[in-house]
């Protein structure tokens, strides 16, 4: 996002980044938003969707918010597999997963769809 100015007394950059869900704010001649969806941004979005689905699966499994889990994420979609691999640390941190595999046989199982790709989520308390 490009804005004409960020203000003299208050640094609005952090607010704009957070509220508009943009990566960076630049100062320029006029207001502009770059809407290009790069492959990197797409994979990051996939990872955030995976986190959302895992959090829902945790809730459905009756786990406490601070319970550590063992997690298995299975998909045949290569783009989703790449997103999971690239953002494995983020997914683990956000979901409190101590392990993430692609073939775990855990007691709680649910399915989700991420941008048309099927995802099998299995988890259990670690």
Summarize the structure.
The chain is α/β, with parallel strands linked by helices. The protein has 2 domains: 1-35, no CATH class; 39-125. Helix content is 37%, strand content 25%.
Q: What are the key terms here?
A:
single chain, 126 residues, alpha/beta, 2 domains, four-stranded mixed β-sheet, two-stranded parallel ribbon, 4 helices, elongated
Structure description:
The strands form 2 sheets. The chain has a 4-stranded mixed sheet, with helices on one face. A two-stranded parallel ribbon has the order 1-2. The longest helix is centred in the middle third of the chain and has 22 residues, at 39-60. It has 4 helices and 6 strands; from the N terminus they run E-H-E-H-E-H-H-E-E-E. The chain has 2 domains: 1-35, no CATH class; 39-125. With 126 residues, the chain is α/β, with parallel strands linked by helices. Strand 1 (2-3), helix 1 (13-20) and strand 2 form a beta-alpha-beta unit.
Helix content: 25-40%
Count of DSSP helices?
4
Q: Give the averaged pLDDT, no decimals.
A: 91
Structural class: alpha/beta
Rounded to the nearest angstrom, the radius of gyration is 18 Å
Morphology call? elongated
Number of domains: 2
Show unreliable segments: none
State the assembly state of the protein chains: single chain
Order the strands across the largest sheet as they lie in space.
Answer: 4-3-6-5
Q: Based on DSSP secondary structure assignment, what is the total number of beta strands?
A: 6
Distance between the termini: 42 Å
> SSE order, as H and E?
EHEHEHHEEE
Question: DSSP strand (E) fraction?
Answer: 15-25%
């Amino acid at each position: 996002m490009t804005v004409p100015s960020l203000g003299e007394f208050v640094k609005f950059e952090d607010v704009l980044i957070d509220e508009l869900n943009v990566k960076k704010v630049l100062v320029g001649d006029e207001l502009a938003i770059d809407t290009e969806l790069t492959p990197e941004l797409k994979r990051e979005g996939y990872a955030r969707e995976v986190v959302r689905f895992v959090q829902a699966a945790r809730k459905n499994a009756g786990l406490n918010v601070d319970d550590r889990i063992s997690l298995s994420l299975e998909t045949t979609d290569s783009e989703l597999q790449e997103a999971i691999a690239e953002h494995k640390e983020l997914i683990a941190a956000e979901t409190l997963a101590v392990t993430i595999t692609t073939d775990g046989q855990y007691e709680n199982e649910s399915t989700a769809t991420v941008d048309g790709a099927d995802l099998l989520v299995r988890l259990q308390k670690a």
